[in-house]
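hiii, so i know i said id send this last week but things got crazy w the move. better late than never?? heres the sequnce for the chain we talked about at the cafe, plus the structure i predicted for it. fair warning i was half asleep when i ran it
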Amino acid sequence: MPLFALVIATFGLGLEQLVQWRFGPMGIVALILLSIGIKAKNPTCTGIGAVVLALLVMQPGL
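okay and structure toks below
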């Protein structure tokens, strides 16, 4: 079980660094909103995070 938690934590940190490198601070805010919304089962927070990430992904010129 501790090995599984370590692998999940490493994956999460890697994903966070990738998002920050690719989309900057707004990507981190969107990822935080998305994860908080999923954990709290709050559809508003989840939706805002998902929309912001989608807009950042579809942004031309990246």
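btw The longest helix spans residues 2-40. thought thatd interest u
miss u guys!!
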